Each structure stands twice: as C-alpha cells, then as structure tokens.
From TrEMBL:
<dbReference type="InterPro" id="IPR016039">
    <property type="entry name" value="Thiolase-like"/>
</dbReference>
<dbReference type="InterPro" id="IPR020616">
    <property type="entry name" value="Thiolase_N"/>
</dbReference>
<dbReference type="Pfam" id="PF00108">
    <property type="entry name" value="Thiolase_N"/>
</dbReference>
<protein>
    <submittedName>
        <fullName>Uncharacterized protein</fullName>
    </submittedName>
</protein>
<dbReference type="GO" id="GO:0016747">
    <property type="term" value="F:acyltransferase activity, transferring groups other than amino-acyl groups"/>
</dbReference>
<feature type="domain" description="Thiolase C-terminal">
    <location>
        <begin position="263"/>
        <end position="393"/>
    </location>
</feature>
<dbReference type="InterPro" id="IPR055140">
    <property type="entry name" value="Thiolase_C_2"/>
</dbReference>
<dbReference type="InterPro" id="IPR002155">
    <property type="entry name" value="Thiolase"/>
</dbReference>
<feature type="domain" description="Thiolase N-terminal">
    <location>
        <begin position="7"/>
        <end position="240"/>
    </location>
</feature>
<dbReference type="Pfam" id="PF22691">
    <property type="entry name" value="Thiolase_C_1"/>
</dbReference>
Amino acid sequence: MTRTRTFVVGCGLTKFERAGSSRDWHELTEEALQTCMKDANVDFMQHVDAAVVGYCYGEPTCGQRAIYSLGHKGIPVFNTNNNCSTGSSAIFLARTLIEAGSHQCVIALGFEKMQRHLSSVYTDRGWSSPLQKHYDHLYDQTTIAREPIAKGMNDWTSNVVKMFGEAALEHQKKYGTSDRHFAMISHKNHRHSVNNPYSKNRKEYTLEEIQGTGKLWGPLTSAQAAPTGDGAAAVLIVSQDFLEEMMTDTATSFDREKRSMISMCGTDMTREAAKKLYKASGLRPRDVDVLEVHDCFSSNELMVMEALGLCEEGRGGDLVEKGRWITNAGGGNHFLVGDRWVVNPSGGLESKGHPISATGVAQCIELCWQLRGEAGKRQVGGARVALQHNLGLGSAVVITAYKRYETKAKL
C-alpha cells in the first residue's frame, strides 16, 4: 500500500517563557496559530478541515477554544495527551488523518501553561499515578529507598529525576561514561541556544558552571535538566515526504532480569522505532544532517544518540568526545557530534524550556526551518535530511524523518 505523501507547509511558534508567565494559554495558541497560517499562506475557512490539539495541563475542550481564534468553521477538533510526546503525537495523528484519506489539510497544535514542577492536577481522586509502574520499577530494580521528596519538588518531579539519574549511573557503570560527557551535552545545547530567539534561556555556560550547579541525582545537575515552561507551537500539514513511526513501551522496559533503568527511560522503544523508520524510508543514520532529540536530561540525549544508531551502544561518550565546534552556515557556532551530526541546534529542552505539549511541535518547526534554510545563525549548511525524536514516559516515543522537498524547474 502506497502512503499518501504529506508536507509541513506552515510553522508558528511562540517564545518559550518561564512557567507561570503572564500570558494566558489562549493568547499563546492564538499567536502560534495565526503565525502558522500566515507562514503557510493558506486560508483557514476555505482549506483547513481538521485540527489535532495536544496539551497536558488544561480542560477537555481547550483545543476547540484555541481553534476558534481562527474562525468558527465546524471542523472536527481532536484533543490529545501523551505526556512529553504529546506535540509529536498530535503531528502523528494529523498525518494519519491525511493518510486515511478522510482529510486533506490538518492543523497540529501543542501548547502548555505550567507550574514550576511536573505535578498531577488532580488531588481528590485517590488514583495511583499513570507512572506507577515506572515508580515501582525504579524502587524495585535499584538500591535506592523510598526517600523523602527533595526540597522544592513534588512526588512526580522527584521520581522522574531519579529515573534519569539512575539511568545515567547505570550507563556509567556499564560503559565508563564520565560526568563530563553528560555535562558536555548540556554545554553544547546551552551554547546552541544563544542563537535561538525562541529559547527560554539563552545564556552560555562553561563546563565548570554546568557541573557546579545544584546536584539533582547521580551525575545530573540542574543545568542538565529541562525546565517546565509556557509556550505554543503549531504546524499545518497537507501532504508527506517524510516518515515517522510511533512505539510504546516494550516488555524489556520493565524486565526484572535485565534490571535496567536505561531501558525504562525509553531507549528500547526508541531503538525499535528507529529500526522501523530506517527500513521503511531507506535512510541510514549517516544520511541525516541535523537532529532534534528529547533531552529532558543530558543523560537522555546521550543514550538516545546510541539508540538512533549514531554510534554503538555504550559509545555515546566517545561520540561526544570526538565532536568539534565549527562556524555554521548562518555565522553562528555548531557542535558536530561524532564529527558528523548537529544535534539540537535549537538548544534542546535543557535551554529552550519544556512546555510539555509544545515541545514536539517546536522540534518539528526547528527542523522545517533548517530544511528551508531559514534558521538564521542556527543554520546547518546544506541540510537536506532531518530526524526528530520525542519521548513521553508512560509511554510513547515518536521518531520522524523529514526530507527537503526539491521542486523540478519548469522549462
């Protein structure tokens, strides 16, 4: 069966702000949507026939209210929530609507208004956490005890920090990865963010400053974690010359014999999704020029690069060590990972901020700008193929390949 090809033709993004910023959520979504439609030069009332809206913190029909800012057309609006992969899940669903033949022009929107830390908005229902299986695995398969929650954190934030911190410690024990390797990733991302006007934090840090910020868990410091935030991002999808595959937790994620926090943090499902993408698209890792990956913590970016096939398992530290800084096509600086790939030219989640449901859509927008040659001082020279990785615990991972569309000149 031949898949319908779809294109991302419009992009709209707000600057990511600190959590609890003064702008209301519908102001953020209106800016992103209006910018997206203007960028696409498409008339909403005439052409758009569906919308998929992703958010984690909001009422059930926020999507409808957001879309109303473009007009009252009566199109179907689908609200979705898939934790940190919500934004790219919205894109996945929008593309699926087009592939199914039921729609031709679909908006995918992700937005968030957040508090300082990850938390549940429901306190009166007596339900166990959606991540309870992850929590149980964390305490069952590691030596740490159920300790009091760290100052300034709630249960959700504290446990997620421990998950990725323990995964980092496991990677160090297995492969000899150093604290410095994780800090180098954070240093690279913060330096990239200097040239991103949409980034929450555009400050460049030295390696020493990154390693000297407050300890979170294991080798991770506060500068190596993605902060929550407020923001919105929208794309308009009308056809496709890219491929994406979506996976959920595999059995190995919670394998008691394997006793792996690395697996539980999404590397196994990332590896399986990447294999499917490469097989279906005919692409190989070395064909990719630029990547936006889910660096909720610096340790996750290192392990994701391994799972995506940029290097062998356990060699992520070497990949970073072999990297070098270059002057890019836009006049800024890029770090070539493994002397080949530019990863997170936007600055990643660590510096850009992580308004959960806007993240995946913002990754898509950054890569579209890179392939269009519109990334300014962040521009990767000659970028033709891009790869996006977006993880949501609880769990889903979406991996998307984008290819620059070349039109044939008419005689």
